[in-house]
Design goal:
By secondary structure, this protein is an alpha+beta fold. The chain has 14 helices and nine strands.
């Protein structure tokens, strides 16, 4: 085991830290002048990146950094992942515009609770709700010098003891009873998150959707961002918009048809492809004119010619 240290440098290749932490996967990161400050598990963490490395700083010395290496997924061969994508124009444009975007591997409980709180909210609002929840119910964590106080994410046992009124005070509105009932189910042992990785993805999805406030989109977010099920393909307003505009720009297609398309077209790393399309759509302005590229040839459907997007700022979803 390495000597304990407050800092660790991870060598990287093709890793865009800004895109990864700001792509709507996790909600505990804030950008500062030199990088990003956030919380992973029980650790306050400051991250700085250049082309070849990510340097992490913690408040107390650590000898085993496996938890952060796994969270950041620095060991993933991103080029190999992208080679599995279908060769179509929308994904080529998305991977070029969002080069180096990675999927994180999050704590299942925090991921589940956070996405229950995400319903109909913008990313900045989700961050605020999660921050309120942690400040009120989480354990205080040691931080670096001159940094404001932060708290860990509250356990299901702690939230199970809260009242709905107390949770609503964290600005989560109608989501409060969903979070409370879910926390009580997990704390009481009626639902066991640790059993999901061993289940087939369809079974794991059905189990998650038994929880209050968890539909398919939230379930797929948890399957993808916490457990690494690459066939999970969360479809929210931005992904629906991307699929419609990029793959079916001149046709009305039902949601069920789009879901079938996502299950067959995007290959073994469909979840990764989804994140590229999601982040691309959030940070790009659609060009309503005809595509200047080649026709898409999907594996199971025949959408019309895709629309090209130009990179620019775009508003968050409502």
């Amino acid at each position: 085991m390495s000597p304990a240290s407050n800092s660790k440098t991870f060598p990287i290749r093709d890793y865009h830290l800004d895109a990864t932490l700001d792509s709507g996967q996790a909600f505990r990161w804030q950008r500062d002048q030199q990088g990003w400050v956030g919380v992973v598990g029980s650790h306050w963490v400051r991250l700085r990146a250049d082309e070849f490395s990510i340097t992490a700083e913690t408040a107390r010395p650590i000898s085993d950094w496996t938890w952060l290496e796994n969270y950041l997924q620095v060991h993933v061969d991103l080029a190999a992942v992208i080679r599995t994508f279908p060769e179509d124009e929308p994904l080529r444009a998305a991977t070029l515009a969002c080069r180096g975007l990675r999927l994180l591997r999050q704590d299942p409980w925090e991921c589940l609770a956070s996405f229950i709180l995400s319903s109909t909210k913008q990313i900045v609002q989700i961050r605020q709700i999660v921050s309120h929840l942690c400040e009120r119910f989480g354990e205080p964590l040691e931080v670096g010098p001159m940094f404001p106080r932060v708290h860990g994410f509250p356990s299901p046992e702690r939230l199970a003891r809260a009242s709905e009124t107390e949770l609503r005070a964290c600005k989560m509105g109608f989501r409060a009873p969903y979070l409370l009932e879910t926390a009580r189910a997990i704390a009481g042992g009626q639902f066991q998150l640790e059993q999901l990785p061993a289940a087939p993805v369809e079974s794991a999805r059905r189990r998650l959707m038994e929880l209050p406030g968890v539909g398919r989109k939230i379930a797929d977010c948890v399957l993808l961002f916490a457990y690494g099920f690459q066939s999970a393909f969360p479809v929210d307003v931005w992904v629906m918009k991307a699929l419609q505009q990029l793959y079916f720009p001149h046709r009305r297609v039902s949601r069920k048809r789009l879901e079938r398309f996502t299950q067959t077209h995007f290959g073994p790393n469909a979840g990764y492809a989804q994140q590229y399309l999601f982040h691309y759509m959030r940070t790009a302005r659609p060009n309503p004119g005809p595509s200047r590229g080649s026709r898409v040839k999907p594996r199971s459907a025949r959408p019309t010619r895709p629309t090209v997007l130009k990179t620019s700022a775009h508003a968050e979803p409502g």
